[in-house]
Amino acid sequence: MLEAGLWGLAAASALVVGALVGLAAQVPRQAVALAMAFGAGALISALAFDLTQDAFAHGGTLPVAAGLASGALVFFAGDQVIHRRGGARRGRRMKHGATNGPAIVLGAMLDGIPESVVLGSTLIGGAGIGVPFLAAVFMSNVPEALSAAADLRKEGHQPTWIIGLWAGVALVSGLAAALGYWLLGGMGSGAVPLIQAFAAGAILTMLADTMIPEAFAEGGDLTGLATVFGFATAFLLSTVS
Q1: Distance between CA atoms of 22 and 6, rounded to whole angstroms?
Q2: How far apart, in whole angstroms, are the C-alpha atoms of residue 199 and residue 52?
Q3: In a 3-state reduction of DSSP, which class is residue 158?
Q4: CA distance linking residue 85 with residue 105, whole number of Å
Q5: What is the pTM of this model?
Q6: Cα dist from 104 to 37, 91, 101, 123, 151, whole Å
Q7: pLDDT single digits (tens) 110-157
């Protein structure tokens, strides 16, 4: 459980890295958007080959179908609840111009919890951490915090407050990974395919609803290329891991 939490914290530490970069340098918005597209492509690859394919190989059609559907529905329901409470995530921040701190925190937690839970679940049954998925989560977290940190600085928030904000989100993500291992581990290794497919469905819904729309909004015509590069990088990483 402790190891799962530490891996979740390691992946989420990219949020702090991104915030530091966003405060220290003025990175062009298009570059941030293309980095987000790269991260989205990496996550799609990790979902396809490290989660869904593995879940199908060990569990068959029914757990994969049930997991994908339930993961997507749970994320959608949580998204609606948080949105009604004022939480603006990546895509909706772009659409509505919402950049207040609580909204960004709520959104980042909603985005990050499924990722953290699946990181913890990869340790169930004695398996090692999924390196390609860990790398994909790390790469996708950096541009989110980078963009948000710049927006929060423009609103007048102090750098120490901004870094503390993202450090708090990283700690929550680490806790989610630990709790995910603890809660799901009790189901036994036989439930791993269902857990993997559930996480894949939740994260894929998040990508389509948040990361990719924002990336295209500011990345323009290069978004597709950056996404493919991210996909290819994560796939090649999975072949050597």
Answers
A1: 25
A2: 9
A3: coil
A4: 12
A5: 0.76
A6: 19, 11, 5, 30, 10
A7: 666 766 776 776 666 555 566 777 777 788 788 878 877 877 787 788
